[in-house]
Specification:
The structure is a homodimer. By secondary structure, the first copy, chain A, is mainly alpha-helical. The first copy, chain A, has a single domain, classed as Farnesyl Diphosphate Synthase. Chain A is about 70% helix and about 0% strand. Chain A is built from 15 helices and two strands. A two-stranded antiparallel ribbon of chain A has the order 1-2. In chain A, helix 2 packs across helix 6, helix 3 packs antiparallel against helix 4 and helix 4 packs parallel to helix 7. Chain A starts with a helix and ends with a helix. Chains A and B meet through helix 2, helix 6, helix 7 and helix 8 of A and helix 2, helix 6, helix 7 and helix 8 of B.
Chain lengths: ~300, ~300
């Protein structure tokens, strides 16, 4: 199977899973459920769920075991977008080419939808019957997601981001912010895939953790690059939004050339980390390249 | 030990545990951590953690096993207060006798602090080493908390609440809203205590579930009563706030006499559910009475 067709297969799969795990719109409270579905099902690259599937496959995890972890990490990502877009945060009007959740449903419902999406992720990980049966590994999966979402991960990165607007930042601090805000959840995606396999060897988990850290940071640097060089229609969000908000980005702090160099370097670091896993890890290698070469 | 001294002992314990599980203010991101601590450590009755300890004790769970579940449920409760108080939601200025979190730290940090408190609860339940060692039971504890916090619980109740302002509501719908918004988390507290014991007998878990459902609803009805008859200084929040907002409350929908009658009835239902558990459940019986007779 080519990488593109594998990606397409997993993408279709996660869309179907998300459709199922989200409460139906017809069930009360209808408006809250509608807002949750709007926030999650409105497209998106699904990079994090794809990484759950790809990493799980490397260690031989059956796809049905990976559905709940894949959906859970996307629910967390979607909640973070809903809250980041709020007027008190980035005050964004456009997301994935459509009005942001608070623009479509009002601020109160958007706050609540974000809250409910976050906890739905953990509900899923603690109730799904198709996940890996070893409760210790299930607990590890939930732990990876929780840790990556909290103040030592995504929420912490967002807090640094909030305090950084309009201020100078050095490259090290920027990399820390990016690694927390985006990198932690991407690394967690890879590890949630790994923990879904039967007794994953510790050295494989370690290699995938290294891989995840490197592509997580690379992903955000590419995001920064696209904020300058991307196209609003292709991206589905406003190009130049970060610069307009005087947010520090990799190109603004280190220059565009350094940003591209660092993304390429991290891609190589990620690929090198996979060497111990041999040919089964080739799709992850392709994924690393896709992440730093994507245009949206 | 008298009930009051038992309560005082558990209260001191949960305060110490919360102090420890919250990230220190000196650790980056400092402002986010300060807001989280402010939201949680600013007093409060700690009814939910007290129920974790009391229910766990009934089935013989050692106290140190109950610390993480007790803290986790209070973190969820605290996050819900921070978000409910936001300008887009209830727009409250006062909570526990102090400025609300967004008044003290700004709206963006308050949103983020709520988000981070919610996930810290799950981080705690997936990392704490003193909890019950059976991973299946640990998973059940996390599942109770997740389910009670989502759209079939607290978030769902809050959504009904949002849509209900200024509208007529019948008693059945009001009871559903109260059972979701407040009752689910209180019932979960009792069950998290139960799941922390060694192999809790199913009939005991069932009895405690019935107990939790009844006192959960009773708790919210008493809250409604105090919104009319309470004292702002004792409550630490503005008396009459719900009526002023034209929110349906038990007294406004069914009358004050019916509200008091229903609270007393639910207290008796809760106590009757404990009968199978014998004398070890006496502290829970006293807790049910405390919940419907409290003045704050």
């Amino acid at each position: 199977m080519t990488f593109r067709s594998r990606l397409a297969k997993h993408l279709a799969r996660v869309e179907a899973v998300l459709e199922t795990v989200l409460p139906p719109e017809g069930r009360a409270p209808e408006r809250l459920h509608a807002a949750m579905r709007y926030a999650v099902l409105g497209g998106g690259k699904r990079v994090r769920p794809l990484l759950v599937y790809l990493a799980g496959e490397v260690l031989g995890a059956p796809l049905e075991r990976l559905d709940a972890p894949a959906a859970a990490v996307e629910l967390i990502h979607a909640y973070s977008l809903v809250h980041d877009d709020l007027p008190a945060m980035d005050d964004d009007d456009l997301r994935r080419g459509r009005p942001t959740c608070h623009r479509a449903f009002g601020e109160a419902t958007a706050i609540l939808a974000g809250d409910a999406l976050q906890v739905l992720a953990f509900e899923l990980l603690t109730t799904d019957s198709k996940m890996v049966s070893d409760d210790h590994q299930r607990m590890a999966i939930a732990r990876e997601l929780a840790t990556a979402s909290g103040t030592a991960g995504m929420a912490g990165g967002q807090a640094i981001d909030l305090s950084a607007q309009g201020r100078q930042m050095d490259v090290d601090t920027l990399e820390t912010m990016h690694s927390l805000k985006t990198g932690a959840l991407i690394r967690a995606s890879v590890l949630m895939g790994a923990w879904s396999a039967d007794k994953p060897p510790p050295e494989a988990v370690w290699a995938l953790s290294e891989f995840g850290s490197a592509i997580g940071l690379a992903f955000q640097i590419q995001d920064d690059i696209l904020d300058v060089e991307g196209d609003t229609d292709t991206l589905g969000k406003t190009v130049g939004a970060d610069s307009a908000r005087q947010k520090p980005t990799y190109p603004s702090v280190a220059g565009m050339e350094a940003a591209k160099g660092r993304a390429a370097e991290l891609c190589e670091i990620a690929i090198a980390a996979l060497s111990a896993l041999g040919s089964p890890a080739y799709p992850l290698r392709d994924m690393a390249r896709y992440i730093v070469h994507r245009e949206s």
